[in-house]
Target: Major facilitator superfamily transporter
Amino acid sequence: MNSPSRVISFVNAGHFIDHYAMLIFAAAVIIMGPALGMAYSELLPYATPGFIAFGAGSLLTGWLGDRWSRRHMMLIFFVGIGLSMISVGFVRTPAELGAALFAIGIFASIYHPVGTAMIVSYADRLGREMGINGVWGNLGVASSALVTGVIGQYLGWRFAFIVPGVVTILIGIAFAMMVVHEDRKGSKQAAAQARVAKQDMWRVILALLIVVIAISTTFNAVTVALPKLFAERLADLTRSPALLGIIAACVYVFGAMTQYTIGRLLDRYSLKTVALPLSFMLAPFLYLAASLSNLPLILVSIGIVMGAFGQVTVNDAMVGKYTSEEWRSRAYAVRYFIGFTAAGASVGLVAWLYEQGGFVTMLHAFAALCLLAIAAAIILPREIRTPQAV
Model:
């Protein structure tokens, strides 16, 4: 048997790497544009195939995780995404860039259906472990903006991809040596702690579908656009890529704390009780951000990331609570296929909305979309909970 704490530690590291790798380009594109002779709105769409692969690939990777081996799939994840990051550092043309980013997306698609299922499988308390896992993913988002800004400023944008690629491969080697393949079927699952009436399951599915589309699209749009938004709107404070990365990282730390808090609340209260008040956060903060700059924008951005990352934790816990062990990777695969496909489309949408009316138009549009999260929380039925120690 593997040590649960060891497995969860590696899976948490994978969550960090997954989001970090997917967002290096969003931070590096600011300095890549001049080097490649392309404008921001021209270069950004080259990330779209990678984000689509991030979602579409999860259907196959989730199936392989259930039918073959989650451990082996995670090993492929670490090595594959590491090599893909390194390859971006050697591209010479936009077409090569698009192909390398597509490869990152393919290998990144392994993590969420496989890694999240492993977390649920090994967790003693689902909410707490989901919250901690969410913190690691959020720290990956934050570190991507920070480290990419620093490396890009002092070593150049190519090393911003090469250095984390090498580190990721080393982590993969350690994973291969310390985590062995095993059959987890029949083991006790922390996920079996909540249910709803059979006739209300359609409401769970509908609520999950609505909120995944709305939040995944907005989540990805915000994480992709935030470095550029700060570069434009914080010009009175600083123009340093490194300092802008530090500011973005600090904003994301609040999202990390929110995910941990939401995870603990989910161990104590029902999904609906936690999700309903949380659903009211995003729309007003996104609308306000459209007209703000400097310190007020930073404060409102904190509210945006708290709302977005908190919702992601709720969505993941919802799937974990209502699926059995043998189907869990495939259930997460469908959840992430829908979510990341919508998120992939958001990259092109961000570029198009930015061309139409800058960040004012973009932020207003996503504020309207987030009204759907409120509807989803209202639709969600009450849980019939089993006793659980807190």
About this structure: The CA atoms of residues 251 and 298 lie 7 Å apart.
